[in-house]
Please model this.
Amino acid sequence: PRASDFARDSVAAIPEMLAGAWSTPADVLRVAILHEDGLYGQTVSGLQESQLRARGLTQVERLGYSARSVELSPVLQRLRAVGADVVLHTGYQNDIVLFYRGMKEAGWRPRMVIGSGAGYSLTDTARSVGPDFEGTLDVDFTQFAVNEAVAPGLPAFVELYKKRYGSDPRSGHSLANYVGARLVLEALQRAGSLERDKLRAAMLATDVAEGTTATGWGARFDEKGQNLRARPYLAQWQGGKLVTVGPAEAAVAGIRAVMG
Model:
């Protein structure tokens, strides 16, 4: 999925999921954008700003910080001062842990945090944060708690993973890598050669329908190599697991509109 997909779906969760759950008009909710200052964070946050404007939602702040930060107190003070109801956060594991520990120390948190992939899908992050991570929303790669009807072959992958590594997968990244590797290996077979031009032509000729792989993605690549049939899903940490809550055809649980 592209950065624009993460931005679109994280913003869409506000009017399409949270506003109804809170019985509050979406344009009344105060939304803040928080991001690490690397390329990923800057790209997603900029696109989120555009999405908020397009939907007529209320943005109260956009804050960037160094991914190497050792504390985020100034950021938290500002989020609290602007009365953020929802924080859209793009960050990695270490800064996510800092963010949640800082909220706990400050005795404040927004009504909801929506993560944009990266460290938000890792079980290691959830364990490090603890119970306060419960209820956090995350727009991310396909996770393992998803409707199998849209992700055929998922249970078989999980069993093979457990057999090979002796544990449950740590995040949906391993699933995405598996599906991507299969697409490349199948293209290699069709190309019958490791020659670059032949392999590129085989990859560009790939035509896999959505809903036919273990991620639920299809495969059709543009000239830049971007898969046009890959999309993220909306998931939520519930009971220590990241479960899919949207879209409806992929969901295995309803959204819970509270954190902690």
Summary: The first strand starts at residue 30 and ends at 36. Residues 3-22 form the longest helix (20 residues). The beta strands are 30-36, 58-65, 86-90, 112-116, 137-140, 233-238, 241-246.
